[in-house]
Each structure stands twice: as structure tokens, then as C-alpha cells.
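Quick one - first record:
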Amino acid sequence: MSEPLDVPLTRPTEERDATRTLDTLATLMISALCILALYVAKSVFVPIAIAVLLSFVLSLPVRLLRRIGLNRVVAVLIVVIASLAVTFAISAALTRQVTELAVDLPKYQATITSKAGSLREMVFANGLMEKGASIFKGLGALGQKKDDAASAPPALGRGDEPRPIPVEVREAEPSPLSMLQTIVGTALSPLETIAIVVIFVIFILLQREDLRNRFISLVGTRDLQRTTVAMNDAAGRLSRFFLAQTLLNAAFGVVVAVGLYAIGVPGPLLFGMIGFLMRFVPYIGAIVAAGLPVALAAAVDPGWTMALETLALFLVLELAVGQFIEPLLYGRNTGLSPIAVVVAATFWTWLWGPIGLVLATPLTVCLVVLGRHVEQLNFLDVILGDAPALTPVEHFYQRMLVSDASEVADQAEAFLKTGSLIAYYDEVALNGLLMAESDFRRGVLHESRQKRIKETIDEMIDDLDDHADAPPAPAQPRETPIAEIGASDAPAAVGAPLDQAPPEQGPARKPVLCIAGRHPLDEAAAGLLAQILEKHGIGAKVEPADILRIGGILNLAGSGAQMICLSYLGSEAGAAQVRYAIRRLRRRLPDAKIIVGFWRCEAERASELCGQIRADACVTSLSEATAFFVAEAKAQEPAVAHAPAMPILAGAA
């Protein structure tokens, strides 16, 4: 006995699922190992990450120097030395300002004490706040009494030993040599990091092409041209983006320093540098950078004017830079989804501390770019990128599966802002139904689910009923026509231009009968066509596939339908099946014109099918079908006007 029919379909599916599961587990294991390595060896990876990001920033100046004729080594050394000179000059100025602030802080103690007393008086002047403060104070005193009672030594009775004498251990005063060792040890770690960063930056800039080629070889050389173009484009975009972001944030820091100097806040250069660094932190960077200068301004000024001016400076700058300058310079969008920005900041801060917070967005942008251009890392773009996780067609089908017609209508509303209703149906709805058709052929979409999809399509059609449709554009001539009208018994390809819609039909006139070829999915596609025809003044009625059976087709004999459209999704319809349906319709409605819609079918396959059936025309899109029916309606219009009474098909669409 042969195997059951579903065995060949189930076994490959199980094998694909097992392979996908193994790939997912392997990806998770590799990701966990990479995270563990980044955490354990962060003292090595942090300088490398900084060097990679700096190489993106400095690569453009190096290329500019190369264009004027300088040797690569000379250009790299000039750029690196100039960057180091600027860095050390700024560091020296910052060190001086930090020292001055440390010396001047005691001077501000009186102002801070006075303002703290004023705030306390304001709090206790409020009765509710005073009661709350007394409650918390009482709770604190109660806890203190319990702690004192628990820590008190037991009382000594007669004959007990005397209490032990407390002993206090004090460290000896540090010697000059130990102080020098402490200072050198504290400064050695940053100097070591700077040295590693400089070395890696030099070698990355010198070996840029070699590193690119090695990365391309690692990724794969199956499509060398595409990979090379993608890598060059990604590197160029990252370089321009990071350089623009660095310059913009540096300008932000300079303006902050100048503004604070004009306001009178001490240490303007220090806070300008903090503003420059914190601008790399999205959303909250500028707010965090404003905290210290605002607090210091409140401590320096006896009043609140300086603090308010400092806060206004940061607010105005952040609004101007974030809302106007950034979109004009390199676009507001960094390619990251908002949730990815927050998650990335949390992850890199946990992994590398404060330096991870500053590097979070640049590093994540690099990962997203790699995910977009490297097939093996595509999951990074899906998880972190701001591109929609599903295409419009996939989103349409997914919403159909859960019977969410309202969200599909919202998607259509967004599409209709720039496109027509018939374009949405052709480009999104029909392709979504094709995905359902594919699942049906695989045996995973049962009849009940097909009916739910068809009902959801009907709800969507009703929701979009108030949208007018622009006349479809003239269809482009095919290189190889499906068939030629009148040449033989073969059907014709339809692409007639639609200059204007025919006169509005009366409520009882339904000259077009849209019949589903096989199942409810074909009926859903027929419903889309019927609505478009109604939009163009042609009455249409939808019939299910059961109408083609003996009991149903007898009811069509007296309907007097002028035109019929058989609806089939895709190219899987059998020619014999379609030819049989056309033959039965010809017997009952010999005067009606019959066209067949092989929706979204490839041109070659449609031409092959049309050569084997005996229809008046074949179409592959709703725009072609609409153009055909409009042309036919215009051709029949004089005859209809002078004919005494032509029978037509009546009924609600």
C-alpha cells in the first residue's frame, strides 16, 4: 500500500523546522559566547571599539589629504597627530578647570546652605508636606532606637568581667613615594587605553582596503560585485554619518561653553566637553549634561536667574539641534528603532559601564548596517533596525489571518495618501491573497480559515467603500502579448486605456458577474474587482465557486449577464478546469463575454493558460480587468440606449 498523501508534504516541513531550530540555537550560542567575550575582555575590546569608530570619523580627512597627492602614511600620521594635539590641549584645559572648581567649591557653601534653608521653609510652610515630613521623621527615629537597642552591649552585673577597651586602627601617613605610585597607577590606565586606541586607529587607517577585502572574503564571494558595492556604500555612509555627528556634537559643546561663559557659570569648557560627549547618548544625553551646570549655577548665584538661564540655554540648543539642524544635516533617523536605542543603551552600559553608554548608539548603528549588507547578520537589522518587520503584503496577510480588518483598513488609508485604491488592491491585497493561496496548496490553510479571510476582506471592502478610485493608468504593452483579439479562438490580453468612466449605472444594473473559480480566496479577489467596477460606474455581483455546479449554474440561465469574470489566484489553476467552467457558462449564457482573471500570474504562464482555454480575454491584474470592462461598457452604451429592454443581472454587490 502506498504512503498517505500527506506524508510527502509533512516530512519536508518537519525537516525545515528542525533545520531552522538548529540554526536558531547555533545563533543564540554564538551570540552568548560573543557577549561573554565582550564582557570578560572589555579592557581589550573597548579600545578596539573606540578605534573603529574613530577610524570612521578620520577616514574622510585622510581621503581628502590623499586626493591632494599626499602619501597614505603621511596623510594618516598628519590626521592622527593633529587629533592627538587637539585632544591633549582640551585635556589640559579641562584639568585646569577641574582644579579651579575643586578649589572654589567651598566658596559656594554659604549659598547652598541658604538656598537649602529656603527650600526647607517652603516645604514646612505647607501643612501637608509638614505632616508627611514629621511622619517620616518619626519612623526614622523609631528605626534608630531599635538599632541602638540591638547594638548596645549587655549590662554588666556583679562579678562580670570589665568591658573591653575599644581599639582604633589608623593608617600611617602616606609617604611621597606611595603618593607617586598612586598617582602613576591612576594615570597609567587611561594612558594605556589611549595608546592602544592610537595604535589601532593608525593600523586601521593604513590597512583599510586590506581589512575590507578580508571582511568580504569572510562574508562570502558568491556575488563579489554586490558585496563590494554594499561594503563600500556602508563604509562611506558610516564615515559621513559619524563625522557629521561628531562635528555637530562638537559644535553643540562649543556653543554650550560659550553660553555658560557668557552667563557666568564656572568651568564652561568642562561642561562644554560633557555636553559634547553626552550628545552621543540619544534622548536623555543633553538633559543629563545640563544637570551639573544647572546645579553649579544655583550654587554660585544667590538667586535663581543664573540657573534658569543655564537651563534655558540647554533646552533651546537641544530643540534647535535635535528638531531642525540634525534632520537637515544627516536626517533625524539613525536607522534604529526607538526601543532598540533604549535597549542598546542599557545593554552597552551594563557591558562596559559609562563608556558603553556613550558608544551605545554608534556601535548599534554599525551592527544594523552590517545586518543590512551581510546576509548572515540579517537578524541584527530585523531586531534593531527601524525598517518595518513585515512588508506591506506580509502585514496584510498576517492581519487577515487574525481577522483584523480595522488595522488593514488603516494600512490602506496610509497607502491611499499617495496611491489609488486599485493600486493598493493590485500591489498589496492580491499579493497577500497569493500568500494565502500558497498556504492553501501546502495544506496548512483550512477551509474555515479561508472563509474567515474572505469575510475579513468583505469587511475591509466595506470600510474602504467611501474612497473614490482614480481611473487606472493605461496598461503598458507587453513584449509578448498573451493573445490577440479576433486572431483566433484564443483569448486576448487586456490593456485598453481608460480615458473616462462610463455613465453611472442604475441601482438594478449589474452587467458584470464576478465568479470565484475554486474556493473562498478566489471569491475574495472577485469581491475586490466588484468594488473597483462599482467605483467606475459598472454594476457587479460576486458569486461563490458553488455557482458553477449543476444546481447553481441553472440559476444563471435567466440572469442575462452581459459580462462574466472568472477569478483565479495565481497560476496554479488547471487549464482543463478553467476550460470546463467556461464551457458550462457558454451553454447557459451564450451572449455574455467571458474573461478570466489569473491574478498576479506571470506573463509567460498566463499566456500559456490563455492559449488552452476559450475565453474572450485574459487579465492578470485588477487594472487590466477594469480597463476591459469600462471599454466594453462604452462600446455597448449606444446599443443599450436604443434597445427596448436588455436583460441584465440584478442584485446587491
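second record:
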Amino acid sequence: MSKMALLLSRMWPSSLFLFIILVWLPYVTHAQSNSTLDPILDFCSRWFSSSVVKGNTLFINGGIETFYDSGLTSDPILGINTYLIKVFMASSWDWKTNITITDEVKPTNPKTGTLPPSLIRGTMFQGPANVSEVFVFGGTTFRGNQSFVGYTPPDANTYPLWSYTYDPSVQSPNQWNQYDLLQPWRPNHGAAAEAVDQNLGFYLNGQIDKGTSPETLHMGNDTTHLDGMLVIDLSNQSAKNISTATITGGGPRVGGALEYIAPVGNKGILVALGGQLSPISSKSNATTGTLLGFDTVDVFDIDSYLQNPDSSGLWYAQSTAGDIPAPRIDFCTVSVSALDNSSHHIYLYGGHDPVQSVNFDDVYVLSLPAFKWTRVNFGKSPRWGHDCHLVGNRQMITLGGNTTNEQCDWESKGVAILDLSTITWGSVYDAYAPQYLVPTAIVSWLGGSPSGGAKIKSPIVGYNNTGLAIVFNTTRTLPSSPANSPSPVTPPSPATPSQSQTATAQHSSHVGVIVGLVISVVAILAILTGLLLWFRSRKRRKAMAPRELDSTEKTEYDIHKHHYELPGIRDKPAELGEQHGHSEAPWEPTTYAVELPGTNVVPGGNPGIPLVRTPSSSKGSQDHFLHE
């Protein structure tokens, strides 16, 4: 026991001393044991993480991270995020001033003796609405810095699916549980989507590499792409792999996106966009693979599979028109529908082209059923390997990403916000944002109004297949409100003391003495905690001296013609308006409480469940950050 603890034990009763130990000591222990590795306090940059929004919380797992801690070294520390991070989403915040982010250590599963995954290029699923769990699927071990204190070697493929119970009131023997899906591999770098209303997760193609398992360590810098799409039943933790032989390109892809559009067809559709191709079972690297263009997207009719689970369902290739984006991978997408479901819009943000060494900072929208692209934003701060999600009624939150030529992410909390209706970047999450309206740039050619009434009800270039026309002309009946949405959090009203409360207060003067003592203890704890935080903040503000990367790090970073060294000076983050093409969103200082939809259904009839695939590096093990 420390001298401070001994002193406190002599000054105060044992109950108060226990209070101190329970409240303050866990924080100190956490800070001491992870002082140079904390993914929030020492955040520099993070990419290839997985994330999901459920209830009032955004969960972030894994990801490559650079840590900033001048207390140990003047150089950025390259490693992995080994914590589960949570962002509170029940009320509004500004990430520059009052965002609430916490993290927690992952305990070993006592059943198997293994740690929950802290991988890269995996994904997360919400899971059924009636369970207090979220799910982590797939991923690969980051082997770029094996001397990192949090590094663990690749684990077996046996348990590619894990669940995390986030509600402490739920009685569960383990907070983390793992599941054997009876599949041969744990994939990564695939595209994922989730039909929350059907308890189904989908994982399209993907790859295995040297970080997949002990059996693949011999692969070096090669990757093998995986055919098929996993259909995962999250209600009973089982999976089936169905063929994707008819998908565009004739082979599996990595680094693309998959979006679920609930209102279309009898059971919704999946839209597959972009990615990098490689022949089945061949070894490849990111600079030689073929990038898929966005002039064609693939649509999967979910009902065609559910009606006959012994089949592989039906894929339709559909041509697109408009401002077609340049080929790329490792972008992120979200989807949202007009209030009357007359149109559906997939937003695509950022990404990079590893073949041409081009990185992107732009936003495109693919509008359905017109299948027309519209570029709505262009900036000068490229980002790839990031996640994004639909939050509130009309905002897209972006998480992390590789900023290519910056030592630390100028978004110092690793998040940013885009209003999908006004196409305005900002730092404020508005939990009470108005309902989604179709942007003016799209309404101008789509017809109707921002609220709906789209005039174009079929592809600009016509349907490539009459079967897809039938799917889009099928009306699906959906619940009027999403089952997965939490109840709104409303500010409490001032309470009026009851007669019994007043009477009790008259006879409780002795309680006041105890309360006063407790308040004193809390004040002292606040001072101690404040001093600890001030000391840590002071350490982080020290300038970082530049240095030359050693030979091992150059092997990691200098894989392609473009070389990325981490600069030695940590610049002050620029304003969002300077980085993106539009000014920062207006900020309303009042914090409200609101329901956070778990789907892309907005009040008034906007059904669908958005799950943005966790972007992953198309470079796979060949990525310049992923080599040994």
C-alpha cells in the first residue's frame, strides 16, 4: 500500500477509505499500467479499426494506432489499440470541447484463456435488438511492430466471432464470449453489412494473410483472397458461406463496401461497391491487383436466398451514371432514405488507390433507384482506412483514418461530423438534428423536394436485368419505428420535495455531517485526479524532436514508391473548415438529449438499417504499414 493510502486509512473511517479505493484507485492503476499506451489520452492517429453504434453508444475496437507520449520517447509509438473504446451518443457534443470518450481493458475469457481480439480490418455488428451485446467479427493481427507492449501473435482461426456484453446489469458469466462458426478461416479486409431487423450479418469475400493465424505465418507479404459471402445468423451465432461466382469481376474482392437498403425488395437488398480484385486462391499484392470501377455496382436480393437457403441467391450487376468516382478502396459508406422512401442514398467518403498512389478527400452520393452518382464535396485532406456511421437523423460520424502525410490526426479526438443534408463538415454531433432531407444538389436532377417525391424511379441508363426491376418495384412493409432504437434521453425535471422528505430532512442533521465529510473526500480526490491529468497533459504538450526512421521501420513504411515518414513535430490541428470543402457546421451550445436510431429509419417512415462496413486496407499484408 502507498504512503498516501496509509495516511488516508488513518485519517478516515474504514468505509470512507474503502470508498476512496473503489473510486480513485482503479483510475490510478489504469493510468499507471497503461500510461504510454492509452488510446484516448495518448491518441495520435488510428486506422483500420472496427466499430458499431448500438443504443446510446458508439463502440470502437482494435485498429493500428500511433501513440504520443513524450514521457518515454520523443518519437511516435506505432502499435495497436488494445482497449474497447466507447463514445457517448445520447446527447449532443462538440469533439473540441465536451465529447465523452471512455475505454476499458479487455479481460481474458476464463473459458478458453484467450484475450478478446484487438485486430485490424475486421468489422462489428449490432446483433439482435433484444440483447445487450455487440459482436466483433474477423480481422488480422497487426505485425508491423512486434516489440509493442500490447502485441500478441496471431491466434487460431477457431473463433472468428466474439460478443461483448455492454450492459452491466445483465447477468453473464463472461463479458466477452467467443463462437466457432465452423468456417475454415477468419477473414479480414472484406465488406460487411447488417440487416438488424432480420438478425443477419453479411461478410463479402475478404482475404487471409500472415496475421490471420499461426498456420499462415509463412505467407510473408502475400495475401489470398476468399470467395463467397458469409451469412451470419447473430441470434444463434451460426454462419453459412454462399457462392459469389456471378459477382462483377469474376473473382473475390477486398477493400470495398457493402450497404443494406431495407425498403427495397421483399427482404431488402445489399449493394456492393468498389474493391480490389484478385483471382481465387492466388497470391497478390496491393500494387498489382485490379481496382473495380464505380460505373457498375452489384445488387444482392436477400429474399432470393432466404426463400431457398440451399441456393446462393441472386446477384444483379447494374450500370451507373453521373459523376462516377475514381476507382479506390478503403473508403467508408453510409446509407439513408428519403422520408417517403422514394429514393435511397449511399454516401461514399475518402479512400485511396494503392496502384496509382492516389488518396482522396471527397464525398459522392449514389442515389437509387436512379443509380446516379453526384459529387457533393471535395477537400484537400485525404483519408483512408476509416469507419463511418449514420448517427442522429442526418449526420455521418467518421472515425480515424490514415491521413497519409501527417504525424498525428488533426481531428484530435479521431472523429468528425458531416451533415448529410447540407453537406457541411463540423465538430458538433447534434442529437436533436432535424430529419434527413435530400441535398439540393441531388434534388436538382432527381426531382421532387428534399422531403421526397423523387421523379426518377428507375436507372438513368435503364435496368441491366428485368429481375432487378422487379426487386425495386416490390414494396416492403416495415415497422413504423425501428425496434433497435433506444428511448430518448430527456433532461430531468426539477423535483418537488414531498412531505415525508421534508420531515425526514428535519431529523437528519447527523447525516449532514457524514455528507460533508464525504464531500471533502470527493474534493480531495478531484484535486488528486486533476493533478494527475495536468501532469499527463503537460507531458503530452512537449514538442517531439524529429528523427530518422531505423531500418526496420523503413521496411514497414517504404514498401511502394511513396514513402511515409512520421514528421517529428506535432502541429496544432487545423479547423475542420480549412480541411474540407465547406465551412464548419454552426454550433448550438445547448446540449440536448435524443433517441439515437440504431438503423437508417428516421421518424416519419424512413426504414432501413445502415451498417457501414469497417473499411480495411486493400494493401492487406502488403500495405506499407503492415509489413514486417
